[in-house]
């Protein structure tokens, strides 16, 4: 941990480009956080219907002007570009964090346990499967049906209660059963690695963009749902990385040593493996964040899965299609988008340099 | 290394040596936004397909775009109407000259065949079937093969148009083995379960439902002046003029025309690219030009030298619907207040660059005789809106308007729905959101897929929505849209509008005999609609199109497709 | 070798199947299929073309003709009180909904009996009263009877009708309704929690679809009602050469540039080129394509290229060369965009592979032998970095798909990407399933090819595979 921090500080001292990129990102983040308190003449969704498709720097009247021009509804491009950055980060960072968490857990789990390292009793497995089925029916299927038929909350609550009762009953019943039937007590290994790898393969058979498009077509446009979809498709890269790192760490001498002195597996994971994983994951995180920014704006450019009131770079850029002469609608948000992605890639590039040299060395 | 540079250089030279392809002057090139799914005359679904089909096939009656009047096309004259107790009879005579591509005459038997195709089970005809279901039988005239009578159920004003509003198919091409011959048209009304096992019909259906019947140049030959020459999927369709078409130079029907030698429909899905194609003179006709671009083109002198630009009044309008069944919106003063927050002027300016006309009701302002010009369209008036809200019992508080309704304290909030992907509605909704926010009504804007939206509307599961409706100047029957008989779930009257008076007026409009009576009733209807403010008509659109100047006799009209390409003549 | 490939291929099939199944089932669970929208929606005109009942009838025959009335899957689970077969499509939408709700609450048998009694009442009322009395009060209560889903308002409405009914037959019908309502009362309110699983055998939509799929039939597009496969083949035909050409050009350029940059004397070039490519990589594809469009195909700026489509209609036949030229001319901008999208990634990957190879011992030896630098790179370094390059190329497919999608949307090329986007926007699910399958199959094929290429490039791997 400390080592990583020192590495980054060394990078900051030695590499001018890294310094520039990192300070750009820092400033942007600061700006985004402080944005609600910065006095802008217009909000991002304020319409100035008197001045639509206003080119930049063309208005000198009074104090309120549009330095970057306006779009088809007279929305101020400057405000949209700034608030668009806010949206982009507010969506991308949680999405990426969720995806990283998911990928890290699954990947590290797969790498750590392998195919034989995790075992549980047959009864537990059976209980898990049956409970999942029941909960799917009572907590998901029935409430969804009830909501779509408009039958009222009491019925939905009844269904949820019923689900809980059934699971408890299942638990009691299986404990009872376990006492009489010996095979249920037998422990079986769960091939965690196989499962995770198959899942990653299945998700990445289809290009991610296509997967997101297809999933988005089933759902109403909403930021939350879209974020969820992206998270559920974005974890595979980090999972692969975490798995590979985990397998490498497992081979390291100090890890073997720790194991031989009898530290238990949770302790091992937490104390030893995770700090080592952090570096590579940070690299992947910054890199994927750049891709995610591009993805988010592409989706809102294509008008898929995003509500129209969401301020975003893609929305501003998309409005150039109804007026090709309005170059400022592409140039300003496009430039900021490109710069941000560039900065993220630059940081990721230098970070990877540091971490890979450290690991090899 | 060197060869690499050479390669790049030569690539550029080759690419830049190509020039814009030469154009043949007698060919009209039209843009097609969406590729027709099928050109089957009974299951076509989009406007582009209809435009092309109108050049290949003919219906008994059609609108002449020169004066927007219904005129006899395949029929020799408008039908003779006879209204009996429970049925009405429409008698038609087909033009003597009318003939198919192979020279055989168009007869009443072909009309009977067409009706069978439209009404039979098992066939892919569900899209047009409901439209002709009121025609119960056809009576052929034994002495005249070109004369026949439709027997229709009841009477309504649009029937005259609807009896002549489907393409007549050549029986010899579509059914060479005369499989449908034994079928009776009268047997096709009511329960059809027996027919579903009819082996002739099954055999016919197997062939007729195949994609070939909507795509093949061999089958798609009608009595119109053009033949489908080629159809390159995803690229273009071309139509070629028949060499000696019967419709040329008819003395009593100069509006039947097939002038251009060849018409090609170039498929360009994207609006921006279509516009650029027009600018580089690769298209002769482009309609639906974005308003901002249209204005810009109007500034370009070079462009105006070659293209004429038109903006005819269309018969399509945007309206807002409010769900009167909701307790918070059941008071008409609340709805009037909402109507006063609709900034129609700005909506027109933003989405249409002023190519639209505000309207007080669903009757087009261009129909001067029927339009109620004593009313002024709703416009933004915040003070009035607030007064109306107070008078409807709403209390202005810190964070909005509140009222005690059925024992619950409710806030006046609105969710506005519209079809996703259309900037007209989106602009209207966002502008409304802003002006409502200014008086303290929080508005949520939610775009929806069309299917979901119509489902919600039919289930009365909405608060307010924006939509558009299109019509024509011939039939003004608002009954299904506004009568309270249609206000049940699944009915077309989704807003729940309807007073006893409006129901009576709507019934009376359909029975009106003279234009004066009809005008009086329609004006009254507009007043009621205006006052109730449940179905708020906002503005009628104008179409925007550009046509190359080498063509004359363009027949620009507000009716789709806005011009009659078959009438184009080359100017000298 | 063959066995290994076969195993990988067989492993890919379950993934394809699972994917297609998920898309299929999800798509059928959603409301508002294309047909229902087109038939039931009376268009956007002011007057209706055809009455509501005619539309409903037409829709029913459409549903039946296309097999959409069958159950979705082999099994279905639902509340025992509600049986979907009872709510089959023989009622209007409103009645169906009411029947479903009442079934959930009070059991299917009771609900159906009630619905029938109300239908009888309505018929009675229409026959005897509609023309004589302006019975608006009854009409309102009848509306309630046909819409409400709780017994209290229903009982109230039925009693009102009974009180207002003048005709004995009408009164009898109202009594009958009340009896049915009475029967609905006692059913326990928890009954709906009991699940019932029903088995439908092979008469279900999924089975039919799967059987057809195995016969190579992907179904018909909702939108154009043409076979999905046919539309797909056409679209692939339009995109194919664009993709291949862009791939070949990109690959060639990337290779040449990396070889160039690997040379010592081109140090300056590398210092300029690498950051430039890095920057190019940061521009999202859609921004790049739009910039190209606005800059190079706009008469207001520079018009070098035409912008749309796949060529114009030409009255006379063109020679092969001319046709090729025309195609190249039309595809220039899309091609350029695709090359620009993919060049940075490929170049940087190949470059790092080559520089890694340049540091290895054998290149040092080769250099020591006195070979010229370019020869060292081409003969030794390049050959030894072949393996990573193969991986890079096969990993490159997803980026290609995304890029094509954007390019086809912006430049209106009627290819697979555009088809996909249209299918997503219009929710044409058979088409969507088809495209997803095709892309997945393409991807799997690319992996297999990469495996084969590995074996070809490296004899050691070939050994291991057998």
TrEMBL record, chain A:
Q: Which organism is it from?
A: Pontibacter saemangeumensis
Task: Give the chief site where it resides.
Answer: membrane
Q: Sorted alphabetically, which keywords does the UniProt record give?
A: Cell membrane, Membrane, Transmembrane, Transmembrane helix, Transport
The way this protein sits in the membrane is described as:
Multi-pass membrane protein
Protein's cellular compartments: Cell membrane
Annotated Pfam families? BPD_transp_1
| Family, per entry | Belongs to the binding-protein-dependent transport system permease family.
Where the record annotates domain ABC transmembrane type-1, the positions are 156-348
Positions of transmembrane segments: 21-40, 88-113, 125-144, 156-177, 281-306, 326-351
* Origin superkingdom: Bacteria
rRNA processing as UniProt keyword: no
Family annotation (PANTHER family): D,D-DIPEPTIDE TRANSPORT SYSTEM PERMEASE PROTEIN DDPC-RELATED, OLIGOPEPTIDE TRANSPORT SYSTEM PERMEASE PROTEIN APPC
Q: Say yes or no: keyword Cell membrane present.
A: yes
Which SUPFAM superfamilies has this protein been placed in? Answer: MetI-like (SSF161098)
Q: Which InterPro entries match?
A: BP-dependent_transpt_permease, MetI-like, MetI-like_sf
Q: What is the protein name for this chain?
A: ABC transporter permease
TrEMBL record, chain C:
Query: Membrane topology for this entry?
Result: Multi-pass membrane protein
Question: What Pfam families does the annotation carry?
Answer: BPD_transp_1
Localization terms from the record: Cell membrane
| Database matches in PROSITE patterns | ABC_TM1
Transferase keyword on record: no
Instruction: Tell me where the transmembrane regions lie.
Output: 240-260, 272-297, 327-346, 386-411, 431-457
- UniProtKB keywords: Cell membrane, Membrane, Transmembrane, Transmembrane helix, Transport
| Principal subcellular localisation of the protein | membrane
Record-linked InterPro entries:
MetI-like (IPR000515), MetI-like_sf (IPR035906)
- PANTHER family, from UniProt? INNER MEMBRANE ABC TRANSPORTER (PTHR30465), OLIGOPEPTIDE TRANSPORT SYSTEM PERMEASE PROTEIN APPB (PTHR30465:SF0)
Q: What is this protein called?
A: ABC transmembrane type-1 domain-containing protein
Q: Which organism is it from?
A: Pontibacter saemangeumensis
């Amino acid at each position: 941990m400390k080592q990583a921090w020192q590495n980054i500080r060394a990078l900051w001292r030695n590499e001018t480009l890294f310094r520039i990129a990192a300070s750009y990102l820092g400033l942007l983040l600061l700006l985004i956080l402080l944005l609600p308190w910065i006095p802008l003449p217009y909000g991002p969704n304020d319409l100035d219907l008197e001045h639509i498709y206003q080119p930049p720097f063309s208005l000198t009247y009074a104090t309120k002007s549009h330095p970057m021009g306006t779009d088809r509804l007279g929305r101020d491009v400057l405000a949209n570009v700034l608030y668009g950055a806010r949206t982009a980060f507010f969506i991308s960072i949680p999405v990426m964090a969720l995806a990283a968490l998911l990928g890290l857990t699954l990947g590290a789990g797969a790498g750590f346990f392998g195919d034989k390292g995790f075992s549980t009793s047959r009864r537990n497995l059976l209980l898990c499967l049956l409970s999942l089925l029941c909960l799917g029916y009572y907590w998901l299927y029935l409430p969804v049906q009830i909501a779509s038929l408009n039958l009222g909350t009491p019925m939905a609550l009844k269904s949820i209660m019923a689900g809980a009762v059934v699971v408890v009953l299942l638990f009691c019943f299986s404990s009872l059963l376990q006492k009489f039937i010996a095979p249920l007590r037998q422990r079986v290994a769960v091939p965690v690695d196989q499962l995770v790898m198959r899942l990653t393969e299945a998700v990445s058979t289809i290009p991610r963009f296509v997967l997101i498009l297809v999933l988005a077509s089933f759902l109403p446009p909403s930021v939350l749902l879209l974020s969820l979809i992206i998270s559920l498709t974005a974890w595979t890269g980090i999972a692969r990385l975490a798995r590979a790192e985990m397998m490498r760490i497992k081979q390291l001498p100090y890890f073997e040593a720790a194991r031989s002195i009898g530290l238990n597996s949770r302790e091992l994971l937490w104390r030893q493996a995770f700090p080592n994983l952090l570096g590579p994951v940070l690299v992947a995180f910054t890199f994927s964040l750049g891709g995610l920014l591009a993805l988010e704006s592409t989706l809102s450019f294509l008008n898929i899965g995003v509500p129209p009131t969401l301020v975003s770079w893609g929305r501003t850029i998309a409005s150039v299609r109804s007026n090709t002469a309005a170059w400022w609608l592409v140039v300003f948000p496009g430039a900021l988008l490109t710069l941000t992605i560039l900065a993220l890639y630059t940081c990721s590039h230098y970070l990877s340099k540091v971490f890979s040299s450290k690991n090899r060395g | 290394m060197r060869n690499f540079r050479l390669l790049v250089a030569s690539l550029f030279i080759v690419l830049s040596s190509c020039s814009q392809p030469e154009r043949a002057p007698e060919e009209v090139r039209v843009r097609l936004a969406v590729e027709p799914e099928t050109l089957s005359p009974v299951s076509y679904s989009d406007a582009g397909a209809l435009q092309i089909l109108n050049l290949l096939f003919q219906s008994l009656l059609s609108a002449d775009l020169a004066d927007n009047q219904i005129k006899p096309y395949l029929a020799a004259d408008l039908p003779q109407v006879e209204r009996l107790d429970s049925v009405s009879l429409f008698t038609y005579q087909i033009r003597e000259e009318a003939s198919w591509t192979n020279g055989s005459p168009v007869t009443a038997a072909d009309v009977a065949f067409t009706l069978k195709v439209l009404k039979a089970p098992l066939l892919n005809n569900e899209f047009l079937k409901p439209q002709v279901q009121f025609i119960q039988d056809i009576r052929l005239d034994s002495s005249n093969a070109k004369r026949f009578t439709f027997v229709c159920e009841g009477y309504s004003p649009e029937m005259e148009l609807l009896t002549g509003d489907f393409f007549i198919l050549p029986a010899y091409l579509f059914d060479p083995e005369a499989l449908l011959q034994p079928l009776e048209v009268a047997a096709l009304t009511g329960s059809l379960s027996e027919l579903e096992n009819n082996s002739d019909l099954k055999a016919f259906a197997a062939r007729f439902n195949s994609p070939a019947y909507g795509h093949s140049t061999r089958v798609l030959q009608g009595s119109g002046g053009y033949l489908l020459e080629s159809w390159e999927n995803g690229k273009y369709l071309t139509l070629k003029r028949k060499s000696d078409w019967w419709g040329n130079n008819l003395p009593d029907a100069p509006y039947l025309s097939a002038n251009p030698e060849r018409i090609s429909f170039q498929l360009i899905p994207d609006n921006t690219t279509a516009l650029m194609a027009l600018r580089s003179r690769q298209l002769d006709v482009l309609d639906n030009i974005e308003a901002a671009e249209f204005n810009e083109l109007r500034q370009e002198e070079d462009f105006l030298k070659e293209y004429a630009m038109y903006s005819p009044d269309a018969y399509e309008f945007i309206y807002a619907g409010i769900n009167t069944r909701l307790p918070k919106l059941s008071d008409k003063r609340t709805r009037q207040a909402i109507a006063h927050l609709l900034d129609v002027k700005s909506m027109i300016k933003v989405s249409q660059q002023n190519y639209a006309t505000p309207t007080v009701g669903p009757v087009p302002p261009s129909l001067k005789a029927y339009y109620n010009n004593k009313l002024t369209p709703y416009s933004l008036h915040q003070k009035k809106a607030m007064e109306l809200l107070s008078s409807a019992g709403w209390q202005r508080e810190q964070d909005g308007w509140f009222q005690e309704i059925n024992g619950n304290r409710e806030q006046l909030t609105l969710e506005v729905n519209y079809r996703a992907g259309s900037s007209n509605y989106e602009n209207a909704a966002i502008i409304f959101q802003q002006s409502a926010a200014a008086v303290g009504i929080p508005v949520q804007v939610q775009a929806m897929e069309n299917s979901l939206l119509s489902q919600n509307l039919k289930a009365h599961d909405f608060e307010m929505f924006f939509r558009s409706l299109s019509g024509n100047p011939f039939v003004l029957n608002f009954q299904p849209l506004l009568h309270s008989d249609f206000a049940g779930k699944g009915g077309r009257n989704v807003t729940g509008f309807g007073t006893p008076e409006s129901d009576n007026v709507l019934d009376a409009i359909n029975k009106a005999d003279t234009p004066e009576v009809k005008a009086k009733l329609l004006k009254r209807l507009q007043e009621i609609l205006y006052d109730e403010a449940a179905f708020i008509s906002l503005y009628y659109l104008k179409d925007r199109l550009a046509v190359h100047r080498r063509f004359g006799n363009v027949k620009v009209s507000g009716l789709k497709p806005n011009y009659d390409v078959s009438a184009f003549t080359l100017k000298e | 070798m063959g066995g290994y490939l076969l195993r990988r291929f067989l492993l890919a099939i379950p993934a394809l199947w699972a994917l297609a199944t998920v898309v299929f089932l999800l798509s059928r669970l959603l409301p508002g299929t294309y047909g229902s929208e087109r038939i039931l929606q009376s268009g956007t005109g002011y007057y209706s073309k055809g009455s509501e009942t005619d539309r409903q009838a037409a829709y029913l025959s459409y549903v039946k003709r296309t097999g959409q009335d069958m159950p979705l899957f082999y099994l279905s689970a639902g509340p025992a009180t509600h049986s979907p077969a009872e709510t089959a499509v023989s009622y209007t939408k409103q009645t169906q909904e009411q029947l479903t709700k009442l079934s959930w609450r009070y059991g299917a048998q009771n609900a159906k009996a009630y619905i029938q009694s109300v239908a009888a009442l309505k018929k009675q009322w229409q026959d005897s009263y509609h023309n004589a009395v302006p019975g608006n009060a009854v009409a309102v209560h009848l509306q309630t009877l046909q819409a409400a889903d709780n017994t209290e308002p229903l009982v109230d409405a039925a009693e009102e009708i009974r009180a207002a009914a003048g005709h004995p037959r009408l009164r009898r019908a109202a009594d009958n309704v009340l009896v049915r309502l009475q029967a609905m009362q006692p059913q326990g309110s928890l009954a709906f929690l009991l699940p019932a699983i029903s088995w439908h055998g092979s008469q279900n939509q999924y089975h039919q679809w799967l059987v057809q799929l195995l016969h190579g039939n992907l179904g018909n597009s909702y939108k154009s009602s043409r076979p999905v496969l046919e539309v797909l083949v056409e679209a692939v035909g339009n995109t194919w050469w664009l993709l291949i050409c862009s791939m070949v050009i990109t690959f060639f350029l990337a290779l040449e540039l990396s070889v160039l940059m690997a040379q010592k004397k081109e140090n300056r070039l590398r210092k300029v080129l690498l950051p430039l490519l890095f920057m190019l990589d940061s521009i999202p594809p859609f921004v790049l394509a739009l910039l190209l469009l606005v800059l190079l195909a706009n008469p207001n700026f520079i018009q070098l290229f035409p912008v749309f489509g796949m060529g114009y209609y030409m009255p006379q036949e063109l020679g092969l060369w001319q046709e090729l030229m025309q195609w190249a001319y039309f595809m220039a901008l899309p091609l350029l965009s695709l090359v620009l999208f993919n060049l940075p990634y490929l170049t940087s990957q190949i470059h790092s592979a080559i520089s890694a190879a340049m540091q290895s011992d054998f290149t040092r030896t080769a250099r020591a032998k006195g070979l010229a630098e370019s020869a060292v790179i081409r003969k030794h370094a390049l050959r030894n970095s072949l393996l990573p390059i193969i991986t890079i190329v096969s990993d490159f497919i997803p980026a290609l798909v995304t890029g094509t999608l954007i390019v086809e949307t912006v430049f209106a090329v009627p290819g697979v990407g555009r088809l996909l986007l249209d299918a997503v926007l219009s929710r044409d699910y058979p088409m969507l399933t088809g495209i997803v399958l095709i892309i997945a199959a393409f991807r799997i094929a690319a992996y297999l090819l990469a495996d084969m290429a590995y074996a070809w490039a490296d004899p050691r791997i070939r050994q291991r595979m057998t």
